[in-house]
Structure formats: structure tokens, C-alpha cells
Amino acid sequence: MNAPHIPVLLDEVIAALDPQPGDVVVDATFGAGGYTRAILDAGARVHAFDRDPDAIASGQKNFPEAGENPPRLVLHQRRFSEMVNSLADAGVARVDGVVMDIGVSSMQLDQARRGFAFSVEGPLDMRMSREGESAADFLNAAREEDIADVLYQYGEERQSRRVARAIVAARPLETTGDLARVVRKALGYRAGAPKDPATRTFQAVRIHVNAELDELQAGLHAAEVLLGEGGCLAVVTFHSLEDRIVKRFLREAAATHPGPSRHVPAAKAGPPPAFARVSKPIRPSEAENARNPRARSATLRSAIRTAAPARKVS
Questions:
Q1: Among 136, 156, 255, 285, which has the highest number of CB atoms less than 10 A from its own CB?
Q2: Does 63 fall in a domain?
Q3: Residues 181 and 199 reside in one and the same domain
């Protein structure tokens, strides 16, 4: 199969997961199936999740393992936050690995009709699932204050109020080009600048429309529930908001709770650590960045599941 994208940090992800024949691994963000292909080639079985119907249709067409009896690849057109229930329906209670590649896929970015990128003119959509509120729906109906909050929180746009004011004044917005032009004008874009100022706004609106950070939080906890002892969680992120969530989750999940000291009053013991062997952040090599510029901002973090019960979500 000729995948339309290059999976990021593939060798490092597979080294962390260490899939073995007979293992069951969850690819929580199937996309074009780059990780899934490598896991299947190692002899493991895969349950792959993607809320994008285009990705599922492509997988059914291009992966013969999905048509085997029994199938070595099972495709789930669902959010990865729903993996516990979806796998239960498939008779799977424990898995040996979970990999997540967070954010928008190369396929989605490269298709103008999906409306994720300002490099090509397309409808202002950005919906991964092709359902629900689109980017245009949000930007053309939301209050200026709400738009500013989204741009600041999810895009870390310091001039969020100025951009939100310009968006409201320019309504209705219908295409990716409409939004990009409004943002560039509001922020005084100069051709040839190293980074297009529309980048932050597009990121923020996409994250909001798809509830990506909430989905990530829920998916991490679902992985904790599903992974058996010794199973690996490997997560690739592409910007600081995502990476902070993963870093905090693993730090808290791997926290140890020492016994009371004679110098300190006894405290109630916390739960035993759910993860161990938390890796240091791994980033692409210069060689990979040269082959695949989209890898440049990627960070991989991984950890190994202990025998402790999954923590309750507060």
C-alpha cells in the first residue's frame, strides 16, 4: 500500500510498543494506517480507531487484513475516547499496546474540501467526523468574546481579541481563504514572514470544533483502563497544549506515594502507580525532519502499564 503520508517517529513508536506475534494493539488514530501497517507486519493484531469515515473507508480498501477470517485488523469508526466500550463490544477487555498520533492527519490537511488548511482554498469545515458544528458554523454564529477565548486558549494567540473582532466584522466567512485573509489583515501579515499568523487561529478553531483536548484526556484514561500489565502507551503530539496534557497525565499516573516520615504527619496513601518506565520526550532526528517537514514539532512520550488498578476519573 502506498500511504499518502509519512508516519512520524515510526521507528521510535514501534520500538516503544515492541509488538509481538499474537499481541493485540490499539491504533487510536488510524489515519492512513502507517503505524497499523508496521504493527501488523510484526505479527500483532490491531484494533484501529478513526472518527473520519474517509479514513475507515480507505483502510477497508487498502488493508487485506481487515477482510481475513478472523480479521487481524478491526476498524472502528468511533472516537478513540470510546475505545473501552467499542472493544468490549468486540469481546476485547485487555490490550498489549495503545498508540496515539494526536491532531489532524496529513490526508485531512491535503484535501481542500475538508477545510483544515489555509494553503489551499476550500470550505471552512475542519470537522474530523464530517458531523456536527463546522468551523464556519462556529465563527459565523459565536459571540466575539467566545471566539476570542477559543483563539487565546487553543491557539495561544496573544492578539485574540483583535482577531475575533475582525472575524465578526467580516461575517459571513465561507472558505479557508476568507478566514486566512481576515486574520492576516488583522495582524499585519508580511509576505515572506517565517510563520503565517493564520496558523494559530486555524489550530484553535480546529481544536475547538473537534473538542480535541477533551478527547485526548478521555483517550488517555481509556488506554489506562484497557492496557494489561506490561502493555505500552505511546503518544505522539505536535504542539505544546497536547504535550502538556500527556506529560501531566503520565507524571500523575506514575507518581509514587512514600510512606509517612517521622518528621511529617501521616497522610492518606494515594493509589499505586498505574504506569512505570515513563520515557523522556523523543523528538525526530534531523534526517527525519529533512524527509518529512511535518515531523518537526512532534514529541513522543511512552510508558509501561503496571499491575495496579486503573485510577478513577474525577
A1: 136
A2: yes
A3: yes
Using an 8 Å Cβ cutoff, are 274 and 224 in contact?
A: yes
Measured in whole angstroms, the distance separating CA 107 from the mean position of its chain's CA atoms is 14
The candidate with the shortest Cα–Cα distance to 297, out of 281, 309, 275, is 281
Whether 92 and 233 share a structural domain: yes
Q: Between 118 and 283, whose confidence is greater?
A: 283
Q: CATH no. for residue 199?
A: 1.10.150.170
- What was the pLDDT predicted at 106? 64
Nearest 5°: the CA angle 105, 108, 113 is 170
Q: Is residue 79 within 8 Å of 55, Cβ to Cβ?
A: no
Q: Judge if 200 and 217 occupy the same domain.
A: no
Q: Per DSSP, which regions of the chain are E strands?
A: 24-27, 45-49, 73-76, 95-101, 227-237, 275-276, 299-305
Same structural domain for residues 79 and 146? no
Tens of pLDDT, residues 126-156: 999 889 999 999 999 999 999 999 999 999 9
DSSP 35-64: HHHHHHHTT-EEEEE-S-HHHHHHHHHH-G
Burial of 284 per CB tally in 10 Å (0-12, 13-18, 19+):
buried
**What are residue 282's DSSP bridge partners?**
300
Q: Which domain holds residue 200?
A: 120-210
What's the pTM value of the predicted model, to 2 decimals?
0.90
Residue 112, pLDDT above cutoff 80: no
- The tens digit of pLDDT for each residue in 178-207 reads 999 999 999 998 777 778 999 999 999 999
Q: Going by C-beta distance under 8 Å and a sequence separation of 6 or more, which residues neighbour residue 187?
A: 159, 162, 163, 197
Q: Which three cell numbers stand for residue 196?
A: 503565517
Q: In Å, how far are 15, 188, 218, 276, 300 from 96, measured between CA atoms?
A: 14, 50, 19, 15, 18
Do 165 and 217 lie in a common domain? no
Q: For residue 232, report the phi and psi dihedrals to the nearest 5 degrees.
A: -110, 135
